[in-house]
Amino acid sequence: MCGITAVFSPNRPFETDRLRAATNQLSHRGPDGQLIWVAPDGCAGLGHTRLDITTAATPQPIPSEDGKLHIVANGEFYDHVRLRHELMARGHQFCTQTDSEIALHLYEEQGADCLQHLRGEFAFVIWDATRQTLFAARDRFGIKPLFYSWHDGQLWLASEAKALFAAGLPAAWDELAVYQRLFGCYHNERSLFANVQQLPPAHTLQFGRNQPQKLTRYWDVNFPLAKQPYPALSERELVDLVHDQLLEAVTLRTQAHVPVGCLLSGGLDSSTALAMACAQSDQPVAAFTIAFDEAQHDESSKARTTADYLGATLHVIHADDNTLADHFADAAYSGEMLQVNAHGVARWLLSRAIKEAGYRTVLAGEGADELFAGYWFVSAALQAGGKRNLGSLLGQVGKLFKGYGSAESQIAQTSPAVARLMQFLPLPDRFRDSTAHALGLLQNTFDPQFAAQFSNYDPYWKLLRTMRWRSQILRREPAKQLIYLWLTSIFANYHLAGDRLDMAHAVEVRLPFLDHHLFGAVGQIPTRLHTQEGHQKYLLRRVAERYLPHEIAFRPKRPFYAPPITLRPNSRIRQLTADTLHSQTMATLPFFDQQAAIALFERSDNATSLERGVLDPILLMLVSICHIHEQFGL
User: Fold this and answer.
1) pLDDT tens digits, residue range 18-38?
2) pLDDT band at residue 58 under the 50/70/90 scheme
3) CA distances from 407 to 35, 415, 425, 429 (A)
4) Long-range CB contact pairs, 393-400, < 8 A, 24+
5) pLDDT at position 608
C-alpha cells in the first residue's frame, strides 16, 4: 500500500523536480521510503512512496529482467506466491520478493490480459520502453485511486489529485462535476477538479508515442438474468458456499508480516470479518471502533460485546463534537471530496488512532451490503423479486400516462428522467420524500448564474446514460439492478474514496467482501435466498452464526452514520458551519448565493423532522466545498 506517480512527455524531456515534488506530496501514503525513476531519454518517469507491510517490501520502481519495463504499484495482489512459482517455471527471473513484481512479469507475457490473473486492491503504472507506451490499471471495484491529467502535452498520473497540483498542474474547480456531485451524481471518470480525471474502476489506460489514448474496461459486475436457472442447492449448501468463499477472501487478506487488525462496528459485516480473522490467529486480534456521544448513532457497546465474545482487543476512539469540528478541514483535504456526513471525519480519526496504536493494516466490512443486498433502499425491490408477468408489466407501462405524485413533481424540477424512473423502481416512499425535499432545498442555495449554466441539464439522466443498461442492467432482478447502479456510482466514487482518509495516516484497509472471486460466486445467488425469515442478508447471517451468538449474527442493520452535527445547538461544529457560511470564501465561491445559504442554516433552528434528515448533508457539503477551495487554492 503506497503512493504512486507517473509522467509521460512524448515530445520533450520533463522536469525531474516536478515528478519529485508530486511523489513527495504522497509521503503520507508511504512514509518508509521514496524513489523516482526517469527513462534515459527523459520522456517518462515513475515515482513511489513505500509503506512496509511485509518484510519483502522493496523500493520501487521495479525493473524487468531486461530493463525494458518498469512498474510502480499501490495496493495488494493476493495469491501472489502461486503466481510467482508459475512465472518462474516459465523462465521469469524475479529481483524482489514483493507481490507487486508479479504484475510486471504477467504484463511482460500477456500485456493488458495480465489483469485477468490479478486479484486484490490495486492501481499500478508500467512504462514499456519497447513499445514506448505507458500502461495503467485500477482494480475491479475502484478500491485504490488513480487520477490523471493531460497538461501542456504531458500525461501525469498520481494516487491523489493533490500530487498533480504539486507537480505544477493548475488547480481549479470543475463546475460541472461540482453540480453533479451536489446532486449525488458520481461519474466514474470525473473528479472535482478541472482537467483531472479518474481512471475508472476495472479499466486500463494506455498511451503510446505513436498511438492515441486508449481507455478499456477489462471486467464488470455480472449479475445473472432474472430468469436464469440456479442450481437447486439446500440451505446448508448455500451457507457452505458463502462461508468457504468468504473465508478464503479473509485468509488471503490476513497474510502480512505485521499484525492485521479489524475495523469493528456493531453490525454484521465487520463482526463476521473479525470472527474469521480471530479464528485463524493464535493471538488476540486488535479491533477498532468509533464512539459518538449520541446514543442513537453510537454502536461502541455492541462492538464491545462482539469483541469480548471473540477475545479481541478493542480500541474505542471517541469522536465528540469538538473533535469532529477540529478535524473537519483535515478530512476534507485528505479525502478530496464533498462531505455529506461526519462519518468521513470519524473515519479520518479512526485511522489516525490505528496508526498511533502501531497498526498499519486492518480489515473492514465494506461491500457486504452490495454483495448480499443489505441496503434499506433495496428492501422493496427484494419483495418484488425477479418476476415480471404481463399484468405487472402493463401496470408499469400504465404509470407513464399518469401524473406525478407530489414527491415526483418536486424531483422533476431537477430531473424529469428520474421522476419518471422512480415510478418504475420499487423504492420506499421515504426515499422519494427525502430526495424530493433535499433537491428543493439544495436548488434554493444556488447562485443564479451558476444555476443558469445548467438550466436544461439533467444530472441524473446524464449519469444514467453512462450505465451499461443493455448488457448489465436490463432483465436482472430489481434489487440487483439497484445494486449495480449503486456500485457504479456512489459506492465507487464516495464510499471507496475513504481510501484517502485512511492513507492520510498510512493505514491500509483490506476489503474481503470485495474479492472478485467471492463476488462472482455469491452474486449469482437469487436475491430471494438472501431474504428469509424477515431478515436481509440471511445467508451471511447464517455464516456468522458459525462464529458468533445468534443475537449478534441476527442484529438489525444500522449503517455507519455519524450524528447530524451541524444541527446541534451551541456545538463547535455548528459554530464552524456558521462562520464558514458567513466567510469571505463563501462569498467568492461561484456556486452559491451566500445569503440563501445562511438562510438555509438559520432555517435549521426550527426544522421539521423531514428537513433535519436532509439539512445536515447539504450544510456539510457547503462547508466542505469552502475548505477544499481554501486548502487547494482553487
Assistant:
1) 999 999 999 999 999 999 999
2) confident
3) 55, 12, 14, 9
4) 396/423, 396/424, 399/423, 399/424
5) 76
Question: How would you class 227 by CB atoms within 10 Å of its CB: exposed for 0-12, middle for 13-18, buried for 19 or more?
Answer: exposed
Which residues contact residue 337 at a Cβ distance below 8 angstroms, ignoring those fewer than 6 apart? 181, 192, 344, 494, 497, 500, 624
Q: pLDDT digit string (tens) for 275-308? A: 999 999 999 999 999 999 888 888 999 999 999 9
The crossing angle, in degrees rounded to 10, of helices 328-335 and 343-356 is 90
- Domain 235-371+490-553: assigned CATH number: 3.40.50.620
3-state helix, strand, coil in the chain (%, to 5): 45, 15, 35
List pLDDT tens digits, range 478-531.
999 999 999 999 999 999 999 999 999 999 999 999 999 999 999 999 999 999
Helices 300-310 and 268-279 pack at an angle, to 10 degrees, of 20
DSSP helix/strand/coil, 75 = strand
CB atoms within 10 A of CB 400: 9
Q: Which helix (H) or strand (E) holds 292?
A: strand 286-292
From 138, 72, 129, 65, select the one nearest 100 (Cα to Cα). Answer: 72
Residue closest to 328 by CA, chosen among 493, 566, 42: 566
The CA distances from residue 180 to 300, 449, 459, 592, in Å, are 35, 16, 6, 14
Distance CA 190, CA 178 (A): 10
Give the pLDDT confidence score for residue 606 in this predicted structure: 80
**3 state SS of 298:** coil
Scanning the structure block, which residue is given the C-alpha cell 482494480?
139
d(CA 509, CA 121) in angstroms, rounded, equals 10
The residue written with cell numbers 493505514 in the block is 507
Of 224-238, 250-264, 386-400, 416-430, where does mean pLDDT reach its minimum? 386-400
Q: Per DSSP, what are the bridge partners of residue 292?
A: 319
Quote the pLDDT of residue 74. 97
Confidence (pTM):
0.93
- Residue 420, pLDDT above cutoff 70: no
Residue 321: C-alpha distances to residues 327, 505, 571, 583, 614 (Å): 10, 21, 7, 21, 19
Closest CA to 339 of 563, 622, 578: 622
In three state form, how does the secondary structure of 314-372 look? EEEEEECHHHHHHCHHHHHHHHCCCCCCCHHHHHHHHHHHHHHCCCCEEECCCCHHHHH
- Measure the CA angle with vertex 343, ends 341 and 344; round to 5°: 90
Domain boundaries defined on the chain: 3-217, 235-371+490-553
| Cell numbers for 57 | 517490501
Pick the closest to residue 107 from 70, 52, 61 (CA basis): 70
The separation between the first and the last C-alpha atoms of the chain, rounded to the nearest angstrom, is 29
Burial (CB count <10 Å: 0-12, 13-18, 19+), residue 443: middle
- Structure-derived torsion over alpha carbons of residues 162, 165, 166, 169, reported in degrees to the nearest 10: 160
Contact 395, 575 (CB under 8 A): no
Grid cell locating 153:
502535452
Mean confidence (pLDDT) of the chain: 91
CATH number of 3-217: 3.60.20.10
Please work out, in degrees rounded to the nearest 5, the angle formed at the alpha carbon of residue 130 by the alpha carbons of 124 and 135.
20
530-567 as b/e: b if 16+ CB within 10 A: bbeeebbbbbbbbbbeebbeeebbbbeeeebebbbbbb
pLDDT tens-digit series, residues 100-140: 999 999 999 999 999 999 999 999 999 999 999 999 999 99
Q: Which region among 122-126, 223-227, 395-399, 418-422 has the lowest average model confidence (pLDDT)? A: 395-399
